[in-house]
Amino acid sequence: MSSAMANNDINRSFDPSDGEDQVLDVFKRGRENGDPWGRANPRYIIDETGISKSNVEYHIRRLRDAGWIRKVARGLYEFVEDPREEETDDDSTTTPTT
């Protein structure tokens, strides 16, 4: 799947719950300091967040349906995109024109 096609599958109006934000945070850990990041399995998310198994599965399903994460193998998920970051990045990278 091309990245242009993947971007069309992102639900930009999806508003994640606090639990879904916690799950997203697990996927994003490590990217600021160059550590491996972006992939996780439900067990790891449960261990890192303390969220129950059923709630982790629910949050993963909602994030998958929104296109923010994707399933790469049985029990393994990968971060795709958090559209809220684009809005922040766009605002911070705008340079004034003269």
Give the helix/strand layout.
Blueprint: H1 3-8, H2 18-28, E1 39-40, H3 42-49, H4 53-66, E2 69-73, E3 76-79, H5 83-93
Antiparallel strand pairs: 1-3, 2-3
Helix pairs in contact: 2-4, 3-4
The tally of strands reads: 3
Residues in helix, %: 40-55%
How far the N terminus sits from the C terminus, by CA atoms, comes to 40 Å
Shape: globular
Mean pLDDT: 87
Annotated CATH homologous superfamily of the domain at 16-82: Winged helix-like DNA-binding domain superfamily/Winged helix DNA-binding domain
Going by CATH, the architecture of the domain at 16-82 would be Orthogonal Bundle
- Our count of helices gives 5
**Main sheet overview:** 3 strands, antiparallel
Characterization of the model:
The chain is mainly alpha-helical. It has a domain at 16-82: Arc Repressor Mutant, subunit A. Helices cover 51% and strands 11% of the residues. It has a three-stranded antiparallel beta sheet with strand order 1-3-2. A hairpin with a 2-residue loop joins strand 2 and strand 3. Helix 3 (42-49) packs across helix 4 (53-66). The protein starts with a helix and ends in a 5-residue tail after the last helix. The relative contact order is 0.18.
